[in-house]
Amino acid sequence: MASKFRTTEISDPQFESDNLRFITVKTKHLNGRGDICTYIPPNIKSKADTPLLILLHGVYGNSWIWSQKGGAHHTANQLISDEKIKPMIIAMPSDGLWGDGSAYLPHNNLDFEKWIVEDVIDAVKENIAGVTDNSPVFISGLSMGGYGALRLGAKYPHLFKGFSGMSSITDLPQMKLFVEEDLEFYKQEDASNASVFKWMQKNKEQLPPFRFDCGVDDELIEYNRTLNKKLNQAGIKYIYEEFEGKHEWIYWQTHLKDTLLFFDGLL
Questions:
Q1: Is residue 45 over pLDDT 70?
Q2: pLDDT value at residue 43
Q3: Average pLDDT over residues 189-195
Q4: By C-alpha distance, which of 55, 54, 62 is closest to 33?
Q5: Helix (H, G, I), strand (E, B), or coil: what is residue 256?
Q6: Of 96, 8, 31, 34, which is closest to residue 59 (Cα–Cα)?
C-alpha cells in the first residue's frame, strides 16, 4: 500500500531505548515535517487491532516532552506490567511547533487539527505493527493539549472511543495566559470552531465517553469548573475530578494513570 506521506523517517531499533520509537513525516497540513514519539509496550508481538492513545503536549512542548518530562511511557509500562490496563500504543506528536503553541487549530495557512486527526493516526498505522483501521483510538493531553483533546474528541466523535483532558485550557481566550502570540493569529472563520463546549453541545448525542480533571491550585481551575457546570446544565454525561496540585509536571505525572485507567475501562 502506498504511503500517505512523501517522506517518512523512523528510528532504527538497534538504537532505540525505553520502548520508544520516533517517526518524522512530511505533510501538507504542516507544509513540512512533523515529529511523533511513540511508546510500544514490550512483548506486544504485533497483536492486531492494538489500541492507540494520542497524547498531546501543552505550550512550549514538543514530541519528546511527555516521555522525557512526564515519564508517560513508564506510567503506561507499569500499569501494563501490573495488569491494570491492557497494552496500548501511545503516540506523542508535536503540535506542529508553531509559536509558543498551535492550539491544535487550523490557522495561518496550516492545519494543526488535521495533522493530529489524520496524519498522526496514518503515520502510526503505516509504521507501527499492530495498529490497524480497527484499533480503538483515544485522545488526551495536558493544558493546551487538554484543550486539543477535548475539542477534537468532541468534534470528531466517530474517530475516538474516548477522550480526556488534564488541567485543560477550556476555551481559546485562555491561550493568552501562556503564549506571546496575539490571539488574532488563532482566529477562526467561524468562532464556534474553537469552542470545546459548542462542539460538545453540537455532537451531544454522538459523544464517546470522556473525562477531565484539574488541580485545585491550578490557574485554570475556575475555567474547568465553569465547563463542568455548563456540561451539567446541558445534560451531557461525563466525568469531572479535582485533585490536589498545580499546573505542573508532578501533577500530570501523577494523574496520567487516571486517564489510562479510564480508557482501559472502555475497551
A1: no
A2: 78
A3: 95
A4: 62
A5: helix
A6: 96
Buried b (16+ CB within 10 A) or exposed e, 43-64: ebeeeeebbbbbbbbbbebebe
Distance (Å, whole) CA 248 – CA 245: 8
User: What confidence tens digit (pLDDT) does each residue in 1-25 have?
Assistant: 789 999 999 999 999 999 999 999 9
Span 59-63, average pLDDT: 98
In the prediction, which pLDDT does 46 show?
58
Residue for cell digits 515529529? 35
Q: Which helix (H) or strand (E) holds 121?
A: helix 121-127
What single DSSP character describes residue 69?
T
User: What's the whole-model pTM score?
Assistant: 0.97
Max Cα distance, the chain (Å): 54
C-alpha cell at 115: 495533522
Cα distance between residue 102 and residue 60, in whole Å: 10
User: CB-based contacts of 50: which residues, under 8 Å, 6+ apart?
Assistant: 44, 87, 88, 89, 130, 131, 132, 135
What is the per-residue pLDDT for 93? 98
Give the E-state strand segments of the chain in sequence order.
8-10, 20-27, 32-39, 52-56, 89-93, 106-107, 110-111, 137-142, 162-166, 210-215, 239-243
C-alpha cell at 130: 499492530
Average pLDDT over residues 240-267: 98
